[in-house]
Every structure is written in structure tokens, then in C-alpha cells.
What we know:
Elements lengths: L3 H11 L5 E5 L5 E6 L3 E8 L2 E7 L1 E6 L2 E6 L2 E5 L3 E8 L5 E7 L2 H11 L17 E5 L2 H13 L3 H20 L5 H4 L7 H14 L7 H7 L4 H12 L3 H19 L4 H7 L5 H12 L16
Antiparallel strand pairs: 1-2, 2-9, 3-8, 4-7, 4-9, 5-6, 5-8, 7-10
Amino acid sequence: MTLAPLLDELRQTLGTERPSGVAPTGIPGATFFWNDTPVPRSPLLYEPGMVIIGRGRKVGYLGGRRFQYDADSCLILGVPLPFECEVQVPGESLLGVRVDIDMTLLGTLVARFGAQLDLGKGPVAPPHSGVEPLAMQGELLAATRRLLESVRDPVDRQVVGPAALEEIVYRVLRSEHGRVLYDLTQHHTHYSAISRALTRMHRDYRESLGIDDLAKDAGMSTSSFHRAFKAVTGESPLQYLKKTRLLKAKAALIFEGARVDEAAYQVGYASPSQFSREFKRYFQVPPSEAHSLPYSDAV
């Protein structure tokens, strides 16, 4: 039982010859993506969610860790992460679907079943990584198949599709890495405190954000905040903020047609020349060549 035939079918319905891209499935919270050619290791920003591959392979790099996700394993992200990723296409196109994490749905599932799933029992664990690979098998794979099968019919997209999305989140909660999502709903944990700090960083990245202030908002000492932040994101707070600003600037350059100096000021740089140096160091091309970078339209 594989997802590739269903994703092939979805690709054919699009009627596009574009070598890479993303497209809505018609089910809110589920997005189809594809890539026909390999992509070298390059930076991108992953939002919270699941990245499910039906064919091909992605390799992600974060804080010294390496993740491979393919037809046998998906990637779960509980927090937004500046990531480095490469696409491997052994013979045929990479095809996949991204599933967003609806916090209202997640909270509802935890309220209904959290106690029964034993996720909240035991001592409070130290903060864990906000990203983990998870085997695509059993009921999780079956629910994903139902999600993709429902795309064929407009009524199924309204009824079966959302139900399949709910089951996918439920199956992840029941998995060995369920805490990547579960702990987002537990406001007393360092993991959820870091998640809230990340929300602020993504909202206020243009401003001068003090790490001491972020730690205070999280109810943690600065040293504890640093340790927890790196455990969750694989980065120090300053590294994370710099990468986030540069990735936001890349989006402004590509999708908004911003000039280099405009993009620099938009993301909080006072000096366009410093911005250009750091952009080139991170992406290996100057900001004037941002359109040549990978992941301008893909997941």
C-alpha cells in the first residue's frame, strides 16, 4: 500500500508542466507538492505540520541532526524551523503532501483523549526537539490514503477529507513522537514556552528582540531559555532569529519584488550592506540573485 499512485493521479489533474510547485488539494490544511529534479542542500523555513512523501526522498539538516523522509517515513514539526533540505529524485518525480497542524483540532483531541493516551503522565520531561521523523505505516498510512482518495470527489473533500486529517493528527499523537504535538497544548512545559517565544519572534522579527526579554516572557532564566531553545530548535536564539529574518527577506525579494534595501529594512536590518553580506553567507548568492534559489515555491 503506497501513496505514489494517488499522488500521481493528483499531479495529472493539475495539467501543469511546471517542474516544481505547490497546489491546493481542495481540503483545507492539506497541500500537494512536487519536484521533478534534484535540489541541492538549501535553506528554507518549515512551518509546523507534517511533510509526507509518496515518492522520492528529502533529507533535512538541523543543528547537527540529519533526517531522511521518504515513502517510509514522514516528518513532524511542532514549531517553525529554519531548516536546510535537499531533494533526491531517484528516477521519478518527488511527490508529497503537507498537512498543517490546526491548534484548535489538536487541543480538542488532547482534551478528549489525552488522559487515555497516557501522554500527560509521569514527571515533566526536559524540552525535546520540535522535529522528528515518523514511520509511515499502519493506520497513519491508511488515514493518509483516505485523505488523498477523498480529493477525487467534491463531497468527499468536504466530509471524508477533514475526518482523515483529524485521524492523521490523532495517529501522530498516539505515536512514539506524539509529544512533538502534545506538549504544544501543555502550557506549563518549557517546550510550549519556547513555542510561544517562537510565535513572538515570527511576529516581531523586524524589531530588536532581546534574549533576556524573551526568557523573561517565557518565565525562564536566560541560561535555561538558551538550553531549552537549542533543544527544541537546534539553534541558539540569535542564530534562529538571523535565519528567520533572512528567509523572510528572501520571500520579500521573490514574491513581493522588493528591492534589496527594502527587504533589508523590512526584516529589521539597519544596514543594507550588512544584510547583503549575511544573505550571501547564508544562501551562497547575493540578494539580487534570490530568484535563482531553490524552494521559491515548494514545501
